[in-house]
Amino acid sequence: MMLQKERHVLVVFPHPDDESFGTAGTIAQYIEMGVPVTYACLTLGEMGRNLGNPPFANRETLPQIRKQELLGACDAMGLTDLRMMGLRDKTIEFEDPEKLVNMMTDLIEELHPSLVISFHPTLAVHPDHNATGVAVIEAMSRMPEADRPVLYMKAFDNDTLNQLGEPHVAHHTPNVADKKIAALRAHASQTVWMLPDMEKRWAANDKDALDWLYNEAFYIHEFK
Amino acid sequence: METVDVNHLQELLDSFANKDVYIHLETTNGSYASHFQEGFFNAGAFIRNVVIRYELGKVAGESPHRIGLKLPSGWIYAQGITHYTLDEHDRLLMAGLGPDGKLAVALEISETPFAY
Lengths: 224, 116
Hints:
The complex is a heterodimer. Chain A is of the alpha/beta class.
């Protein structure tokens, strides 16, 4: 499916690398089309368990390392408007909900996006992911319907197909695969475990691995 | 981070005894544990920047080690510690890294607060 031309795309995820795994191709394609894209990354992934093996990071240096990785991934995607929102990894669900909703509302009012991309509020596996989706939906549900952007959600819980059926939107992004791979590589502290295996499978034309690289699927949230 | 040298780590623990220190203590299986393994009982705990004063700190056991801190009226301990470092801010960072290199437990001691 061809991407629609958008006025502005706002991507909201909680962790450095969330954008690269399921959305880097989409982000890179929008940017190549000349669509402005803003990525609001809520935390610096301070609580990540991957510290290198042998470890090149520790609990206290990881935030700065992941911040540099995030900047590298944004460069790889061509994304220039990165917002680091200053929350702490693994605490999003415990934040004051109004504070989160106001954060999302401020971003939407400032950027006036025609499309918002975030996580599904219950089927995104990590509590931070789900809590981010909840805040985005609440902020958007308070907007007048006529002004409301479209909302695409990532969902990957094991029960997703059962609950939601097939994704509503599937972007085919092989033309920017090199940018997606570069973005994934930039997140070395998180991806160094999976990339060597993935690269072998891509080189061997493994169908599932190439599907994962070339296709990015989203559900459209229906506001009641 | 280096693998634990028991004598050196013991010296470092002794150097923080009887001082007001900030503690970071964390155990985790990772937020994806029950996604990758259905039915996995995912438990963890995390405290950060709580101030304590311990009268005795001890490294025990073969690697992975156990670290215990005896407080005037309580205890703190961490099990599974494999690595440690005294960083450039003189903070004692201890971590338990699993065979895959992923952090499973962390215990950190500092005379100054940890960043947020």
